[in-house]
Design goal:
This protein is of the alpha+beta class. It has one domain: Gcn5-related N-acetyltransferase (GNAT) (Aminopeptidase). Helix content is about 30%, strand content about 35%.
Length: about 180
């Protein structure tokens, strides 16, 4: 699915662009996700686990753009990737009323309104599609993300204890949230 380019104004007064990434952005996307994973323990991978090539990332971008069931939105500030989000619509008769979302924003761009802007677009897309339930997961301790999700009406529905083990041996739970539309 393709998200048409949209300009937003950040809390800092800067302009940002929301759009589906293009193949030409593959290297930027790869560098962005590696950086994001190195800035926090609240993403599912460490940077060194992203050992894919630019060509593989290009293929992923092409699949994203051509998928009828997944929408990716990337936020660009001054031409650089600041964050991205994704919504994946489920198939099958028993689960087609549900969609899963994910989001990550680089630390330099926290608290500027990017997360809220992207969530508004994800929710609007889900509503247009007739989705009944939006779902997401986050890692225990990520209070900043939890606050954003609750602001948009998501509520905790379950917890998977010890779902993540950090390099130092610490175990963290995975928290599941849902929002009814």
């Amino acid at each position: 699915m393709i998200f048409e380019e949209k300009e937003i104004i950040l809390k800092s007064g800067k302009t940002a662009i929301l759009k589906t990434p293009c193949v030409e952005d593959a290297e930027k996307m790869l560098n962005y996700i590696k950086k994001a994973c190195g800035e926090t323990d609240f993403l599912a991978r460490y940077p060194e686990e992203w050992n894919i090539s630019v060509e593989q990332e290009e293929a992923w971008v092409n699949r994203l753009r051509s998928s009828p069931d997944t929408l990716g939105i990337t936020c660009y500030v001054d031409g650089e990737v600041a964050g991205n989000c994704e919504i994946s619509f489920r198939g099958g008769m028993k689960t087609s009323h549900r969609a899963t979302i994910a989001i990550a924003i680089l630390k330099d761009y926290w608290n500027l309104g990017i997360g809220s802007a992207m969530f508004e677009e994800l929710i609007a897309t889900a509503q247009k599609r007739g989705t009944e339930i939006m779902e997401l997961e986050f890692i225990e301790g990520n209070d900043r993300a939890k606050h954003l999700y609750e602001k948009f009406g998501f509520r905790i529905v379950s917890e998977r204890p010890n779902a993540f083990r950090l390099k130092d041996g610490t175990h963290l739970s995975e928290i599941y949230m849902q929002k009814s539309l």
